Amino acid sequence: MRTLSFLGLDAAERPRLNATSIRQLAKLGTVVRWPGLLFAAVLSLAVPPKLPLGLALLLVWVAVYNAWGMIAISKADDTSILRVGRALTLIDTLSYFLVLFVFGGVGASTSIYAAYILLIVWMVAYDGAEGAMLCVAIFVLGMLGLHAALGAVFNQDFDARDVLLWSLIMVVAGAILAAYDRIVVGGVQGSTVQGAGRSSAPAAPVSTSVSSETPLSSAIPAVRLSRREQEVLQLVSEGYSNSMIAGRLHLSENTIKTYVENLLSRLNARNRAEAVAAASRQNLI
What we know:
Layout lengths: L18 H28 L5 H24 L5 H22 L8 H44 L5 H41 L26 H11 L4 H8 L3 H14 L5 H10 L4
Helix pairs in contact: 1-2, 1-3, 2-3, 3-4, 4-5, 5-9, 6-8, 7-8
């Protein structure tokens, strides 16, 4: 995903979840939407919406795309499951602001705003810091559009304080979630990959003497990699499969397979774990 990559946010991404975890996360999203629909229906009894028909249509819309999501998730392969889960969450953000609109804002229940933090959680899980920034950017633009629409349809005054306050809250929430994801989740996955590399790599013989003619240049990588090779190596170290790397870099799976084979050869490694361990020793990742 290259969303907001022009800001350099792709450099801040955490190690990705594997396909199984992504599928479970997407399935959990389809489960959570049903109580969300019930909450909106109950809220409409306590706080009558300004557009009752609009709310009814919106509830039907969410039920339809959630049912589609359940089917799509079950049929998606490991390469496309991330796109399905991400698409459902982005549709959720649109539906979220439609709910706010049919209620004429959230003056009666500011707890609706807090529900958006769940969407940030999902996008962080899918896309790390990039997902957090994307979700926060959608919130800010959505708030501006919401208040403009409320003014045009219901003649409500534009509440700049409300927009600014909740936008700042979402920025802080997104930053905290992205930092947690990067440091805690990313650190756990990174240590797992490095541990696998250390356990599978053959132990190097211990030398009792060092030749005076051999320069101590361990800080200088023995292997020079191209930018694309560096990208592939980084994704390999983060646990991506060839098909996931292909989807990530928008290349064919055969091309990625060739890159990986070349990396194994150049790093004198028998498998991906050994390649990651060798690259780590040479400061390539």
